Queue: 2 jobs
Job 1
Amino acid sequence: MKERLITHLRHVDLAVPDYDKQFEFYTTMWGLTPAITDEGIAFLAAAGSPEQYSVRLRRAAEKRLDLIAFGASTPDDVDALAERLAADGVQLVTSPSKMQTPGGGYGFRFFDNDGRTVEVSAEVEVRAHRKVEAGESVPVKLSHVVINSPNPEATVAFYERHLRFALSDTLMHPRMGSMMWFLRTNRFHHSLAIARGPHVALHHASFEMRGIDEYMRGTGRLLRAGVEKVWGPGRHMAGNNTFSYFLDPHGNTVEYTTELEQLDEDTWHPHLYDFSDPMVSDQWGTANPMNELVARQSFNDPDRGVFVAPPV
């Protein structure tokens, strides 16, 4: 089996029509810090993360997921992955080269099987970050990204075959079959998950908090401010992490989480969890029930950026 060359998740990039409203939400309400801003583009960092930014916002006529970015260890690994993908017939958007985004580095972009733009990079300059203190309800880092696919089996196979992601667990329903696959590229239970959905779209982006207290403080801050809650607070079975899902001003689902499980990859065996069991959805029993309304919010709008590379 070919070696795994992707090491971790870096950032998620969103295009939004109402840029000012989104910028206000992600900085003032969600707790990210503007690292660099320019006309119609902002790179927003998480306080505890060495990544240059965790979210990039771009002003655009239509809402879309611009890209998902992952890290690699070395430029040689970037080159090797690009060569592997090209040899397998994957469409490259750019060839490996010096990057122009904050922190520089060396990377390339390609389309996955659903037409999302994915970026892989190495040697991005480490950002000066800090320890998030007790009681601070701001994100430590971007934890994971979940995407919707109308053909999730093929999308899971793409990430397993071409990028060497490993399956951690699967959620299923007795009437609907397999519904969500949790994929990892390091010891964390998942940095990417793929959900069955009616169209290609972002399902949600999740941000790690310092601990349970900070997670609950952040959840409470958003509730008090009237931000629309989708689901939570609770604790999932798969990944054993906490969850509170909210909608950003453009209807993207974003999550506060903490305590995502770390696995012994040599001994881990994937579970098949039946999420009609309330304990699977929420071990605590504190969240609102998972129902069709909650699921529909996470379907999001159809992504207008399929097989169209972002301009930046």
Job 2
Amino acid sequence: MAGSTEILVQNLTYSHDPSAPASLSDINISLPKGSRTLLIGANGAGKSTLLQILAGKRLVTSEGARILIKGCDVFRHSPPGITYLGTEWAMNPVVRGDIRVEDFLNSVGGYRHKERRDRLLDILDVDLDWHMHAISDGERRRVQLCMGLMQPWDVLLLDEVTVDLDVQVRDDLLSFLKEDSQHRNATILYATHIFDGLNEFPTHVTHMRLGSFVINATPWPLPPIDPLLDNNESAPDPTLFQIALQWLREDRVHRQELEKGGRKTRGARRDQAVPSSSEAFYKKYDYSH
């Protein structure tokens, strides 16, 4: 059961570039121990940046910010038991070398966690004789998940790592993570864009938009008619997919309103009367017709 605060962020503002607008603005969130929270938001909302900061991978220098996991500052007194799994791992040339999966897992301590490793090998349907350089992105992702999850964790930070998995493996993995979280009272913070099959997974949901929380950690499921949802004509018991889709549509409308006020626009430039220099160049040397 959820209990004391496990993840606490207060007054966090962060920018990748001091000369650019903040990527995260005034982030405040408190997640109880044992919770499983989904970060919902469009691409560029700040989900990955927040997870990387929590994992200690991006240094925060802004005054007044507090970033605590298990009561410890993630930069000054980083606590044990934090596992971060992100998409960038699969692009690392080291994990694309000619090494057998069994040897690879043993090299990172698989022999010390044989029971959990073997269960994950079955769930993720991994062949120990695969060679890392000769497998698909989805298979390589399975190896990453086995490697990252075979050691018991207290806090698990997941950033889109199920995107390459087929639907059966993903469902089995999420069932394992939910069971593991419940059994050990461990905490999960998970950013994803795939909401099918997730209805029974989270204890909380959040909504991020353009670097800020629109909706902070809120218990899931939401009430059938909820002030958080503008359109109460949706399904009596809306699914996570329906809610996420509505929130993302609202995000786009909000951004388009900001564009009318001067924010840089996206999409086609239909009001561009004069061709750009690149368009003029390519038209001149276009021999396809």
